[in-house]
C-alpha cells in the first residue's frame, strides 16, 4: 500500500548528546575526519547503511543505543572535544581575518550546482564539485562567502546499466527534511520565500533552505511548495532537465530569486551584505538584472545602474565551446520580462541587448547567457591558463579591434579541496611526518610552493601506502561491480568470477568523468587487440577502472558507455577492466587514491580545466593526459606523462584519434609499465616512487582550492570590492554619461600622422626613438583618452606578437583643426624583427581595462604604410 501522506520523524536526543545535532547539520563533517569518526562510533553498521550521512544515521539509531551513549563518559569527552573544535573553527580568526583591511565585507557566490557531499546530491559533474570545493576552501580560509543555488528535488539522475550495457536513468525523490538542511524562517517563524512574476499574472514562489558548509551559508531555492501551481512546482525538479522555458525559469529563479534570497538572509541574520557578486558560469547571469532593478528603485537610470552593478561583479566561464553555453530565443526571454512579467519597470529591449550576439559570427536572434554574464561583469576569468586563452579567442567579438590576448578575460586555475579528496591513509602519513596541525594547514590554506617534508618519507612507506590504497580500491570495485551485475539481472550463482576482478599488485589506471564525445571515453578501445595485450601481459599487466555518466539526452554518449561496457564484459578481460555505474562523490573518494595512473584524453583544447587529475595527484597518483586544461600549465616529466596531440590543421577526427591512441599505447607499453614494474636493488620501483614523491611535494601545493580561493580574493574579489565602493550613485551617473559621450564621439577619433626620429630600417639594441603623433579627438579631451605606442617583435606578416604598450603625452594645445600632438620615447629593447604602431583607447580612472568599451582607433593602412617602423 502507498502512504497518502509522508512525515519525517526526527529523533529526540538525550540532553548530553544534543551537540550531535549541530555537528550533523554543519557539513564540515564531510571533510573533518574526527567528526566522521565520532559519528561512525555511534553505530558502525548503521553508519555504513546510512551512506556515511550523520542526519540519516541519527534518524535510524535505536533509542537504547542513544541512552547508552548518553552515559558513556569516553564518548561524551570525544563529543565535547569535537563540538569545541567546530566552535573554534566557526568563530576564530583564519587567513582572511589576518589580511590587511579593505577586503570585501562579503561575497555572494552563485552556481547552478554544488557538490558538497554525496549526502546532498545537488551536482552533476565538475562545475558542481568545483563550486563545492570553492565554498569549503573559503570556509577554511575564513572568506565571508554566501553560496546561492537551487534545491533539485530529484537532484541529478542515478545511473545503472541494462543487461546489454545501455545507461538507465533513475530520479529518486529527495525530501529536504531528510537532508542536512534547515528552512530559513522569517522573524514570525513562517518559512522565508522569494517570488518571481510570470506572464499571465502567474507567480513562481520558492522556499529558501540553508545548508551550513563550515562557516559558509549555502542558500538553496526550492519551488516544490504548495503555494505554486503544478507547473511552477516542477521548476526545480531536476538538474539540467526540461526544455528551453524550463531552463530559463530555473536560471531566472537562480539569478533574480537568488539575489532576493541573499537580501532576505542578510536582513534576517545580520550577515554583512555582499559587496561582490560572483557568477559561476552563465546560468546565474540574471542576478545582474535584479541588482540593476534594485538600483533603479533607488533613483539611478539604467546606464548608471549598469555601471554600478558591473563594478562589483565577477564572472567565471567554464566553457571552451559555444555549444556548451545556454542560449534562448529572444522572443522567449522577452515574454518573461517587462510590464506583464518579471522586472516590470525595466525596458525589455535593454535587457535583450545585454545577451544578444550582436557581433560578427553571432546569431542575432539568440540570447546568450555567457555574453550577458560578460557584459554585466567588469572582471571575468577562465579556469586555467589555456582556457583563459581559449575564452579570449571565443569571446573576442565582444571587443572588436583588439587582439585576443588583450580581451579582458584573465584566468584563475581551478583547485581542489584537499581535506575532501585526500584519503585518510595519505593524510595520516603526512601528519606523522609534520604533525596533524601543520598537515591540516598545509592542505587547507595552500600558501606553500612545495611540501619538502615529503622528501623525508621512506621509499618503503610510500610503496606500502600505494599498495594498501590499491587493495582498498580492489575491494570497493568488486562490491560495486557485484551490485551492478545484480541490477543488470544476473543471479548470485553467475558472479563468482567477481572475486578475481583486479589485483592489488597490478598497475591500475583510472578514468572517470562525464561522457560527452570530446572527452573520448573509448579512445582506449581504438586498437582492441593492442589494449587486450596490455591488459593480459604476462609480466607487466595493467588494469583499468572506468566510470562516468552521459547526459540523459545524449544518446551518443550512451553509445560510448555501451561500447566500453561490452568490451569490459568479455570473459577474457573482465578481470582486468571494469565499468562502474553511478559515478559520484562517494565513488570518487575511493577511486582517486587507489589508482596509480589517472588517464585523461580529451580533444585539446576542449577541457577547460579537468580537476579529477588534481584529486588523484594529491593521493600520489601520476597523471597520463593530453596537454589540456591544468595539465598543459603544470605538466612536468616528474608528475606523469603527456599524450602527444595531433591537432594540426587538416588532421581529420578519425586520423587524429588513431594517432593519439597509438601514442597512448606506446607510452603504456614502452615507458609506464616498465617504470612501474622495474625493481631496484631494494626490490622497489625506485623511479616510480620518486615520481610519486615529486608529485606530492611539487604539484600538490599548486592544485589546492585554498590557493585558488586566495587568488580569487587577491586578484578579483578585492579589486571588485574597491570598484564597488568607488561606484556610488554620483560616480555611476558620471561614468555612464562619460561612456555615452565617448561612444558618440568615437567615430571622429583618428590617428592622422606618425613620425619618428629615426627613418632607417635597422637600429641597435638599446636605441631610444622619439615618436611624434598627431591625432583627432572628435570633441573629446586628452583626459578622455590614452594614446599609446604599441611595440614588440613581429611575425612574417608584420603582426606584433609580444606587444608592450607605452602611453604618449599631449604636447601644447590643439592646432587650428583641433588636432592634438602627442610625443614619447620608444625603446628598442629586443633584437630581431621589431615593429610598432600607435592607437587611441578610451581612458578613465574607473575602467578596469583599456579594452572595456571595445573601442580603439588605429592608423589607416595608408598611414601605417608610410610611417610604420619595421626593423629586421
UniProtKB/TrEMBL annotation:
<dbReference type="InterPro" id="IPR011834">
    <property type="entry name" value="Agluc_phsphrylas"/>
</dbReference>
<keyword id="KW-0663">Pyridoxal phosphate</keyword>
<dbReference type="InterPro" id="IPR035090">
    <property type="entry name" value="Pyridoxal_P_attach_site"/>
</dbReference>
<dbReference type="InterPro" id="IPR000811">
    <property type="entry name" value="Glyco_trans_35"/>
</dbReference>
<comment type="function">
    <text>Phosphorylase is an important allosteric enzyme in carbohydrate metabolism. Enzymes from different sources differ in their regulatory mechanisms and in their natural substrates. However, all known phosphorylases share catalytic and structural properties.</text>
</comment>
<keyword id="KW-0328">Glycosyltransferase</keyword>
<dbReference type="Pfam" id="PF00343">
    <property type="entry name" value="Phosphorylase"/>
</dbReference>
<feature type="domain" description="DUF3417">
    <location>
        <begin position="13"/>
        <end position="120"/>
    </location>
</feature>
<keyword id="KW-0808">Transferase</keyword>
<dbReference type="Pfam" id="PF11897">
    <property type="entry name" value="DUF3417"/>
</dbReference>
<keyword id="KW-0021">Allosteric enzyme</keyword>
<keyword id="KW-0119">Carbohydrate metabolism</keyword>
<protein>
    <recommendedName>
        <fullName>glycogen phosphorylase</fullName>
        <ecNumber>2.4.1.1</ecNumber>
    </recommendedName>
</protein>
<dbReference type="InterPro" id="IPR052182">
    <property type="entry name" value="Glycogen/Maltodextrin_Phosph"/>
</dbReference>
<dbReference type="InterPro" id="IPR024517">
    <property type="entry name" value="Glycogen_phosphorylase_DUF3417"/>
</dbReference>
<comment type="similarity">
    <text>Belongs to the glycogen phosphorylase family.</text>
</comment>
